[in-house]
Amino acid sequence: MDVTITTGTGATDQDRKTPGRPRSARADEAIIEATLDLLASGTPVEALSIEAVAARAGVGKATIYRRWANKEQLIVDAVASIKGEAPAIVGTSVRDDLIALLRPIGQMRKNRFGMIMPCLLGELRRNPELARSYSKLTEPRRELLREVIRRGISTGELRADLDVEVAAAMLTAPLILQGMIAGNPALEGVDLPAKMVDLLLATPAGAAPPPAN
Amino acid sequence: MDVTITTGTGATDQDRKTPGRPRSARADEAIIEATLDLLASGTPVEALSIEAVAARAGVGKATIYRRWANKEQLIVDAVASIKGEAPAIVGTSVRDDLIALLRPIGQMRKNRFGMIMPCLLGELRRNPELARSYSKLTEPRRELLREVIRRGISTGELRADLDVEVAAAMLTAPLILQGMIAGNPALEGVDLPAKMVDLLLATPAGAAPPPAN
Amino acid sequence: MDVTITTGTGATDQDRKTPGRPRSARADEAIIEATLDLLASGTPVEALSIEAVAARAGVGKATIYRRWANKEQLIVDAVASIKGEAPAIVGTSVRDDLIALLRPIGQMRKNRFGMIMPCLLGELRRNPELARSYSKLTEPRRELLREVIRRGISTGELRADLDVEVAAAMLTAPLILQGMIAGNPALEGVDLPAKMVDLLLATPAGAAPPPAN
Amino acid sequence: MDVTITTGTGATDQDRKTPGRPRSARADEAIIEATLDLLASGTPVEALSIEAVAARAGVGKATIYRRWANKEQLIVDAVASIKGEAPAIVGTSVRDDLIALLRPIGQMRKNRFGMIMPCLLGELRRNPELARSYSKLTEPRRELLREVIRRGISTGELRADLDVEVAAAMLTAPLILQGMIAGNPALEGVDLPAKMVDLLLATPAGAAPPPAN
DNA sequence: CGTTAATCGAGACGGTACGTCCTGTCTTCGG
DNA sequence: CCGAAGACAGGACGTACCGTCTCGATTAACG
Question: Do B45 and B105 fall within a single domain?
Fold first, then answer.
């Protein structure tokens, strides 16, 4: 077994042209599109069948299996393809920047990304490689967050004893949990991002602004 | 079709005894036991088949379907039945209590509860009733945590501007995410519970105690 | 008809008083009636389920199993209970008597007995005891037929070289086959009983009557 | 849902080749063979399960359901496939020919065809199309018989007032009944074919040949 | 410019599991 | 003890997908 499953990116390292008919790009698109369609239209991820994807894409099942080794990888690729939305832009105060960065996480529930992700968690748990590939996907946003935190520390806006990674986790995890999973009804009406950021400020919010700068 | 699926709680509405042979308690146990056995022995939740549970429990499939409408509810009931371990006990300082309370959450990864839960998230997301029943399961521990936080605020150990719910979320969510899902490699060696608790102390850990205030 | 439905346990006809509550005759009737109802209303014999009979009779399944060892015996008893119609009466000439005796056999197709019997053939084939009990059921009619044939031979109306059993078989079998099973379309409009009897007359029908008598 | 179940004849309406992988002829054979094996090895027809056929044939259940809409049609096709043995050949006297033609019918009891057929009668009764297809199967033998009878009438060996169809029915029906169903014990040792044929001879067997007539 | 070889759609293949139904047995209750 | 109700273990039903395979028909680039 020495199959080459190109999985999307398909960086054909070398110039060695494969003989025979090349793979149809239209099929790729149609498959991804069909997958997202089905997921968005309510199909639970675990109940998504390759058969249905093939039918909706107007494609033979083998055409899918030729590209993706299994259902999960297809779904991950499909999800990755929608993840391309631009992240938030940076503004004036560190507090505002953090809040702007965090807010969309809490609203995942409402978009199709939030509908799909929780169902992948089980698979992510079992398949570390997949988890890594997913984490690479979200890395840019996380890096952005870390940078803002670092800036906050250096400007004195945030507590000096902050560990950047720990702070990032404390800020994002509650939102992710709230966004993906059922969440705590006691937090329903609360402006969670602001409240959390305030807890990490060097000076309690509402108090005098940080000494200088 | 007017089936009664009793699912565990078995609230005998009234004293009216149901006619016919009563359901066997041994079957109940055998089914739950078989389910946990299979899950603990590596079967991915989504791949757990009623057929296999029935076979291992030495029970007809109908006996399972008579009690649980679907696989997910069976799994939730099964999981609920193992969750009964007593939570941590309270000690001396608020900081130590919090850490003692949080530490086991981060170690879920290693026990079978941590193996099972992530796979249920998708189902929890779609099925609010199920989510509620699950949340009732974890409520005692959450309440304990909230109490300790409240105590910390009143003694002045924790920041006065803490929202109890927000603080609880910030402390638990990172651990849950780290425990259930792959998590951040940058946090691998870190004593997350301690680091997080320290960030919510009124006075940075190691510094002088709060100035009366 | 003196049906003793005890089929199996049998021997209720003694004075030995059984202790406890006696079996309800209403249940017996209801079960038989329900069985015939279901069969007559199109249910294929092989698809008749004890469950359905019990439900329609308003009786527990165990009540049926207590009386009949299995489905086939229940059906046979049920069929036996409708078989009690009086056989034909004997008249003037042997030819007319035979025809009168044979005609109803050909019309079985139209009554519910004809609907039910063919489905029992398979069972009769495998279960000789059952076959014997069925044959006992039809014996009176067959004996009547043999008697008429014997009379015909002695009066000279029928061929002298007739074997009574063989003649009876030749007269009844085509009608049974035609009545129970699909039958030959070429025989659809034909007055089969008359034609067959004529072939066994000593003198061809329409020719001069037998010499003496 | 617009499935085509080809069931044997497979009249390819047009030359238009169906796309996709063609159906495997080996599977066809294996299924039929397994069906006959099971039936011949004692399985009552009504108890024959598709599951068992599939298992013995080494075939998926779907492969069977793709070809036959239900169990009965599968069985009929299976039976049809064994019925192909050449019928008897014609000889010298009409009497001998008839007897040679009839004898195998009475011996059906002993071969697997005789084991299987009675169980199909119920189905034949309910399903006229099926009955027709079965009757087509036996037609060649019946036609042969009719021909011999016609020859017997024209040569004067058989009674002149015979109706061919009626005579055929009288000769075959008793044998079929005796062969398929339990039958009359009084006929057990009798050479039924010979006895019956003799009754239709113009001159009683052993007597002088017909007087020219 | 015809080979050659991998692609395409379609759909059959051997399987597994589904959730329903029925079997024949058992276990309870109330009469 | 009977009758009803209904749970029990078992097993077949017919369906839906799985992941693989085999078709005839396209496509390119290579020779």
Answer: no
